[in-house]
Structure to design on (187 residues):
């Protein structure tokens, strides 16, 4: 019986977490100062980067394939599904579009994981991550904007790694405006 209450609490927290992920990824600084295209694709890619960072942290905590990681993933793709339907995409096309979005998300996640797996060489990690972000989010060659987003992503991952899980689930770690200066904590 207690596990049912815990699952319901986690679902509610995942809703709050997901809302904060959306709000963080829509912060104007990404679009005005970092070159992220303010388009459907640009917003999807930036939100996907944020979702991926949280899923990496959940996976690091050993809960990636558990209900918690799955709930974050489901919230993300449920939101995408709803957005497509609200924009007038027909029921028969939604599944096909969601499948393409899932493939894109998994491909980007694999590229980010490969880049961030180079933790032993921080500069190599930042350089590889910058290249992946340039290719997937900015759709350009690596540049100062992709370098800034790579540094931000690394700092956000570090902030997530030391935060209590309850702070992550409540969205507390994501409430402040993103710090893109690279001088302090990304949260």
């Amino acid at each position: 019986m207690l596990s049912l209450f815990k699952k319901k609490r986690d679902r509610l927290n995942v809703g709050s977490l997901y809302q904060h992920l959306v709000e963080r990824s829509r912060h104007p600084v990404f679009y005005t100062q970092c070159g992220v295209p303010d388009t459907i694709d640009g917003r999807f890619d930036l939100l996907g980067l944020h979702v991926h960072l949280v899923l990496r942290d959940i996976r690091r905590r050993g809960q990636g394939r558990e209900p918690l990681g799955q709930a974050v993933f489901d919230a993300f793709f449920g939101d995408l599904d709803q957005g497509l339907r609200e924009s007038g995409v027909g029921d028969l096309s939604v599944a096909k579009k969601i499948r393409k979005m899932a493939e894109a998300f998994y491909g980007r996640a694999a590229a980010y994981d490969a880049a961030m797996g180079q933790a032993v060489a921080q500069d190599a990690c930042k350089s590889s991550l910058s290249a992946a972000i340039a290719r997937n989010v900015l759709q350009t060659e690596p540049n100062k904007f992709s370098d800034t987003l790579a540094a931000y992503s690394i700092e956000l991952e570090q902030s997530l790694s030391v935060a209590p899980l309850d702070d992550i689930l409540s969205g507390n770690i994501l409430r402040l405006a993103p710090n893109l200066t690279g001088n302090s904590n990304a949260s």
Q: What stands out?
A: Residues 11-174 form one domain. Residues 91-116 form the longest helix (26 residues). The mean pLDDT is 86. The two ends are 36 Å apart (CA to CA).
